[in-house]
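User: Hi! I'm working on a homework problem where we have to compare a predicted structure to a textbook description. Could you give me the structure for the chain below?
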Amino acid sequence: MRVAGGAAAGRAAEPAGRAGETAQTLDRGLRLLHLVAEAPGGLTVTEAAARLGVGRAVVYRLLGALTEHGLVRRDEANRLRLGAGLLHLARRAQPLIADGALPALRRLAEQTGATAHLTVVDGAEGVALAVVEPSWTAFHVAYRTGSRHPLGRGAAGRAILAGRQGRADPVASSGELQSGAYGVAAPVLGVPGLEASVGVVALAPLDLARTGAQVRTAATEIAAALA
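Assistant: Happy to help. Predicted structure tokens:
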């Protein structure tokens, strides 16, 4: 009876052990993916192993699965960089992000009487992922979803750059992307893996103190909805 019970206990423990190993491997793989994402110049296998606190052999095993799925690649210098497979995942996630942001964007557009937008990073550019126009104004800026601009130009892009440095203060612009258009934007902070800003664009100058506070509130609401 004792022998049979011991064997049964051993058989029951094996799946749990394998599940624990699988969870640890998954955790390490995700941590490695985050490390690569946070290293603009890429990582060597040795650097990745040191930051994960594991041996190089473990990193090589993790890379096997990540590279097979196109999530990580090696560049000409053999440094680890993000792979194109992440673009597919990002495209699938974009509608979810836009849906989560729409309630706050609608409130912002109605409060300010200006066109509200959520802008996300795509390489060195900002892309308007979601746009909401106010319902009560006679005239407003037509800003299309999918519009692109360099991150260094316009309030939306410069707010994202400020967010990279941990600054949450609103940013204003005038005529940088379109003559006669005025913008105010603030970064969306605290959402892992997302670089974005919330802003408004109008045909008349915007009060930075008042509009900036409204934009920051919208950015906080969107961060809470997406976190």
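For your comparison, note the following. Residues 1-14 have pLDDT under 50 and may be disordered. The two ends are 52 Å apart (CA to CA). Good luck with the assignment!
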